[in-house]
Amino acid sequence: MATPAPSAVVELLKPITWFAPMWAFGCGVISSGQAPSGQWFVIAAGVVLAGPLVCATSQAANDWFDRHVDAINEPNRPIPSGRIPGRWGLYLAAGWTILSLVVAAMLGPWILGAALFGLVLAWIYSAPPLRLKRNGWWGNSAVALCYEGLPWFTGAAVMAASMPDRRVLLVALLYSVGAHGIMTLNDFKSVEGDRAMGLRSLPVQLGSDRAARFACLVMALPQVVVVALLFHWERTWHAGLVAALLAGQLALMLHFLKAPRSRAAWYNGTGTTLYVLGMLASAFALRPLVQGLAP
């Protein structure tokens, strides 16, 4: 049996997608209020688990079960192009799942539980019979939770060795809700193939213009709530910074909404950058709250 080239395997695992959960894990570590001294190995391993292992597993599984859609939308991807031959895509997804669980088990029960939950979501998102991605409402919710809320929770929990502070959980949840809009942006590139294969992404269900407006609204509203919460918790400077980053996103959204199909990738690289910077600012705002140092 032919074997895939290492370059094709790396492309299948999509390193560019690892950034979001690795960043969210780091935000969780910061927001925990715990000093990192003596835990650098656990932190580094958690970052690797969030990105090159669990996220990479989800990418391999998704490309395997999406190979027929990709043959229409993106035929140059490793599986439809034949650079990942036979059933190697499935084997790689299964092998990365096992490797992820082994590493997670070595890092303790909190990380193992979170990794197991994330891997289950990754598989049911792509694989039949559930295949959550067939409907953009469910599929985008699952991915948003895995990319933002779950790694944020994991980073905070592993540092505290307990359930994170309720304020940490609330902010992580809000950024997960906002990430639903980011996932909708990713669907604009595959409207024709999704429609042909019966995948009801939000651009397919709502049309491009309505889906774009909805994505912007879903991204913006949770950040408004975060700003209000930070003001309520007397983290004034952090609240102002998050508000300024949101204002920048709103300005970029106006440009995106004029031509959502052609500008979705552009907004993903600009507005989403401001979004994740707001996550980091919020994590630093939470740190003294959790430590009990802030009023």
TrEMBL record:
Its main location: membrane. It is a multi-pass membrane protein. It comes from the Bacteria. InterPro entries: Chl_synth, Prenyltransferase_related, UbiA_prenyltransferase, UbiA_sf. The chain crosses the membrane at residues 16-33, 40-61, 98-125, 137-162, 168-190, 211-231, 237-257, 264-286. This is Chlorophyll synthase ChlG. Keywords: Cell membrane, Chlorophyll biosynthesis, Membrane, Transferase, Transmembrane, Transmembrane helix.
